[in-house]
Structures are given as C-alpha cells and as structure tokens.
Amino acid sequence: MEKLKILLVDDEVDFVTTLSERLSMREYDVKFATSSIEAMPLFYSYSPHLIILDIRMPEMNGIEFLKLIKKINPATEVIMLTAYGDVKYVEEAMKEGALEYIIKPIDIKELIIKIERVREKIKQRG
C-alpha cells in the first residue's frame, strides 16, 4: 500500500502543526487545515485515506463535516478528536460513520494504534 494519506483538521494551530510533524516523522503523508472550510478543497485534491477531525470548531463543526465527507466518499475513514469527552457528540459522530475517537490531550502511541487499525481496515478492503 502507498503511504497512508492523513488530513488533520483542528482549529488549534499549534496542535495541528505539531501533530502533523510528529505523524510525518512516522512516515505518514500528512496535510492539515485549521477549519472544515479550509479542509474541503484539500479533501477533494488530496483524497486522504484518513481524516483526524476535531469535533468542536467554528464555522462548520466536525460532525457536520463528517456527514458531508461521508456523503461524498463513504470509504474515507475518520478519527474524531474531542477535548471535552462529550459523550453525546462522540456517540453522534460514531453513528454518522466515524471509526474511532480520541480525547485530547492525545497520547501519540494511542493515536498511532488507531491509525494502524485504519491502515489494516483499508488493506482488507483492497
């Protein structure tokens, strides 16, 4: 399989740039956006295998963006991020097609395990 393409979407600039660097060092192909609006053209042009998406963002929240990308390409996998551990939003995200979720502050080892699960799922799909 080609390098796993990951799109990070989070409105916290320092968080998303740092996470992007850390994932790139682990040989993932990573791009990022600081809003769902900014992420939309990247979604089309980059065609990520995985989107790591914050639930709470201005303009268009993560759940709205999740619904939109799942309509466009249901095969795109999504891991939701939340700083709040808000069960209601996490449940809704999972119902809308998110594969996993992780609570901030993230544990990079836990995130890598979840990313590798996505890679395995994609491999099995062919």
UniProtKB/TrEMBL annotation:
One of its GO terms (molecular function) is transcription cis-regulatory region binding. Keywords: Phosphoprotein, Transferase, Two-component regulatory system. The modification 4-aspartylphosphate is found at D54. PANTHER family: PROTEIN PILG, STRESS RESPONSE REGULATOR PROTEIN 1. GO terms for biological process: regulation of DNA-templated transcription. Gene3D superfamilies: 3.40.50.2300. Residues 5-119 form the Response regulatory domain. This is Sporulation initiation phosphotransferase F. The keyword Transferase applies. GO terms for cellular component: cytosol; protein-DNA complex. Its EC number is 2.7.-.-. CDD domains: REC_YesN-like. SMART domains: REC.
